[in-house]
Every structure is written in structure tokens, then in C-alpha cells.
Amino acid sequence: MLHTVIFIGRSGCGKGTQSGLLNDRIARLDPDKRQILYIETGNYVRDFIRQKQYSSNIARNIYEKDHREPDFLGIFTWSKVMVEDLDENMHLVIDGAPRAIVEAQVLTSAMEFYKRENPTVVYLNVSRRWSEDRLLARWRSDDKTLTKINKRLDWFDKDVVPAIEYFKTNSLYRFLEINGEQPIEKVHSDIIAAYDYSSR
Questions:
Q1: How confident is the model over 58-82, as a mean pLDDT?
Q2: Phi-psi region of 49 (alpha: psi -120 to 50; beta: other; left: phi over 0)
Q3: Where does 4-198 sit in CATH, by number?
Q4: pLDDT single digits (tens) 44-54
């Protein structure tokens, strides 16, 4: 079975950690040792805005103001990777996309285009306060003040939550809601328990 998993949740909820743990498990248990295409959208966006070109300069200005990048740029980021790197025998794990309902709908068209069967959305549900505390603790350049963090959490509530509801009610996807406010090992075990059960 080829795995297709989309991790979504507030900033700081542990998407990167949990997608990495799932990647390791998929690689370990796959008897055919097929490759995993891992798309971490945040890293791609950060790499893009470091470039010295017209579009990158505009995107950097948006990023520095703590606004959400436009839908077309998010879609371009992960779709370019899929078009260039995805093979028919690869597992696919996406971390941090989509960030709006329009992007979710385009991602669905990609799932249908590539005939990905049983794509699973893992929603790591954490409270706003929990996210604030984790983002302040990690002290990344875009997490240094509560004002900056709150801007990002505001657009999560405004834009990402509707995308989560879209996935929850779309019969194409298996939707797993996981309590992210637990130790890393417990979150991982909850993901595996729900994922393995729903895969049967």
C-alpha cells in the first residue's frame, strides 16, 4: 500500500516532529523500500524568500509582516515539488499544507490527478494558548514576540480552520483528529493507532 498523509494544525503543534516519526515508520515497515516524497511547505517558503528575485522580494515583505502568503504561492510551492519529484511508486507525506480552503480544493485535484488512494489528513489539534507557549519557547526568528505569533494564529483561525472542515466532510479523505497536547510519544502512538485502524 502506498501511503498519502497530510499533516495539518496550528504552528508549533508538532507537525514536523510527527510527520518525521511517521516517515521513519513507513520506511521501516515497507517491504519494498519505496521512497517517501516529504513536502515540508514552511521550509520551501523560507528557502524561496531568501532568493534574490522579484517574486521572492514580494513574498519576503509579506513574510516579514507576518501575513499569510497568497494562495497561488502556496499552491505553486507544493505542486512544483509534486510535478518535478513525485513518482508513481512513492509514498507522499505533506507537512503544513494547505493553509486555506482554496488550496485544499486544489490539493484535492492533485490527489485525483495522481490517483492517490485513501489519502489521510492528520489534524493535530492544540489550543491557541498551547501553541503560543510552544512558539515562544522555540524562539525561531518568526516566533520572537507574542504579537508576531498572534498574527499567525489569527490567520490560522480565519483561513486554515475552514480547510480543516473541508477535509473533515470530504469523503475522499480519511480524517484523523489527534490531541496534540500530549507527550511526543503519546501523540505518535495515537496517530498510529488511529491510522492503522482506519487503513483496514
A1: 92
A2: alpha
A3: 3.40.50.300
A4: 888 999 999 99
